[in-house]
Structure formats: structure tokens, C-alpha cells
# Entry
Amino acid sequence: MSRIYIITGKGGVGKTSLAAAHAVRSAREGHNTLLVSADMAHNLGDIFQTKAGGYVQELAPCLSVLELDPYMLMREEYPNINKTISNLSGTVGAAIDSIGETYMIPGLENLFSLLKIRDLYLSGTYDRIIVDCAPTGETLSLLKLPELLAWYVEKFSPVGRTLTRVLTPVARLRYRMELPDKAAMDEIGQLYTKLIKLQDLLKNPDSSRVRLVCIPERMVVEETRRSYMYLNLYHYPVDGVFINRILPDHTGSSFMENWQRIQKGYLEELESVFTEVPITRIPWFPAEIRGMEAVERLSREALSENDLFDRPVRTDNEIYAPIEGGYSLTIRVPGASQEDVEVFMREMDVDIRIRNFMRSIPLPGVLRGAQMTSAIVADGTLTICFRTKEADG
Ligand SMILES: Nc1ncnc2c1ncn2[C@@H]1O[C@H](COP(=O)(O)OP(=O)(O)OP(=O)(O)O)[C@@H](O)[C@H]1O
Ligand SMILES: [Mg+2]
# Structure
């Protein structure tokens, strides 16, 4: 079965190098592999010392590379949406303040890269697609987009169509912007279906995995912990943490040995936090990872485990269980504490807010009219209890 591997982490920690090493290892095993960059600051071309560009290029047997250009994809594959977005104030985001609420979609263009990755997956050409992603902050906003946008489209369609007719002239005057026209609305409808399918693809551990790259440094450790928690909140299957640039022992230099001691503290911290995902330690090589030979070496020396592409992954996230008088819903939020988490119920959704991340989980029909009775975080798991209407009646 083919699979997508999303490699992400803080800026400069070694995402591109590790994505390339994954791809080289996969190709060496005889699996048809595509290494794709969804980071606007592409560096696949740089690492392989070739010109990658916006089209698929074969580098070696079973190994192709592609640098995605979301603006080109948007122009070519979704022309009407593109027009709508350009019409909205600001080219990158969309803010529509028409029914008393504001809808913000920052970084929307990157979504087209994800949709393209799904098309590439569906084409069946590749056994493995390795995605060199943008730094985590951006990747997280990107990964929450399918859900956010699907919600947004739900708000606007089919009601959106009516709203468009009624509000367009008003909106134009009042907000000096255009609301989506009919062609764009139809495209948005199709996009909605694709977004739902995209989520199914990326959140299913059979078809996708997310891997976090980090280095043993204070700021990076913090960010990696947070990213892991958010990825779990959004139900993405994380199956590995790669700690890169670990200094060697016994360098004979007191300067280096001091840094090594500092690293050691963070290594221990990382290992105490990531107890439920495999950790791979990667040494700091004496030279930069540039050129096929260097990538080969990284892959050989750091990614040698047999089941690199077939790791087990936890699947006990977002589980409903019957309890007396109702149901409980458990969501894994590793590293979060009770104070970080706010939970609200809104009609048929439960909204979970953790700092600036908000996730709306649609509730199943049996919870129509139910009451939320508690929301408790313990051992990295949020348990929300609901009391059904029948239990009260
Ligand atoms: N284990 C390693 N040993 C030596 N050098 C490394 C190692 N890993 C990465 N590098 C070097 O560190 C630099 C950053 O690595 P890389 O480009 O892979 O990071 P990145 O996370 O993709 O960065 P960006 O966020 O800028 O895209 C590069 O010069 C790379 O060659
Ligand atoms: Mg990079």
C-alpha cells in the first residue's frame, strides 16, 4: 500500500536532509518514490545540487523529485477560486465579515500543495511520497486548514449561495470586496468534497505518517513538544521523532564537551517526553549534507532500521465510549495540562481550544441535545463526558 510521509520540524533542524535521506533509502529498496517539497523556500534542488523546479524530475532509479508551486496550482487548477481570493482584501488570506463573524484563512495557498499531493497519491504512480514540509508553525496551520476550511464552506454552502445573491452588492459597498461568484461557489463545493477526502487521507495511519525532526536545543525542544501535542489534537498520525545533530563523544575538546553536556540534558528531556513514539538519534556529521553521496551516507548511517517505513502508530485517539447516562470522548493531547485546555459545546460540535489552536469536532447523532458534564486532562489525554437527552428524560 502506498503512503505519504510528512517530514516537519522547526526551521533549520534538518527537515530537507532527512526527507531526502528517507527518499533515497526508499528508492534503494526498489520502491518508486517521490520526494516533494511543500515548503515555499524550496531546497531540494540545493541538496541534490540540481535544478528541481515545478515539475517531476527523475534523479535516480525509483527516485523522483518535485518542488510544488502553490500559486501555479491555484491558477491552473482552481482558476475561479483563485479569482475570488485575489478579489478579497489581501491576496494571502480571506476575511469575510458578512454575517457578523469573521472568517480568516491564512496561508490558504499552501492547501493547494496538499491537494496536489493527494492527486499524486491517487495517481498510483508512487509507492511512497516523502514530503519536505515547511517549518512546523506553518505546517500546523496548514494541517488544520482542511478542517477549518471544510467548516467554512459548510457555513457558506448552500446558504452561501443565497447569501452571495443577497449580500454581494451590499458587501461590495460596505467592505469594498467581492463575495465569491457562482462559478467560484461551485468550485468551492467541489473543493469541500476534496477537503474531506484529504483529511481522511492525511489522518489515516494506513495512508499517511507525520515525522518530527528536532535538535537537542532548548527552543527546539519546546516547540517540538508543542507541535506533537497539536498534531495529536488534530488527529495526525505521528510515528517518529528524529533528533538530529547530536555531537560525538570524546572529542578531546573542552569546548565541544561542554556543548555535549548541554545537548545531553535536552536529549534526556526529549526522551522523557516522547515515550510513546520511536526516537531516532542522528549524529552531527563532519560536513553539510549536500549531494547524493552525503544523503546516501545519512540514510545509511542514521536511517538503517528495518521497519523505517512501517512503524506501528498509536490509534487510540478520538475514541467514544459508553458511560453511565451518556458517552465519553477521549482525545490525546500529550504534554498539555488542564489550564491549557478550554472546551465548549456548540450545537453539534465540540470546540477544543489550546492557546491559539482551535479544533471543532463534529459530534455523532446520538449526542444531539446532550450536555457536556466534564472535560478533564490527565496523563496527556482529554476526556470529555456527555450526558444524553434520553438519560435526562
Ligand atoms: N546531521 C547533520 N550533520 C551535519 N550537517 C547537517 C546535519 N543535518 C543537517 N545538516 C546541515 O544543516 C543545514 C540545515 O539542514 P536542512 O536544510 O536539512 O534543514 P531544514 O530543516 O530543511 O531547514 P529549513 O527550515 O531552512 O528548510 C544544512 O546545511 C544541512 O546540510
Ligand atoms: Mg528545508
Notes: Residues 88-104, 159-164, 170-177 have pLDDT under 50 and may be disordered. The domain at 319-392 is CATH 2.60.40.790 (Immunoglobulin-like). The chain has two domains: 3-302, 319-392. Residues 15-16, 39, 43, 132 surround magnesium ion (ligand 2) (CB under 6 Å).
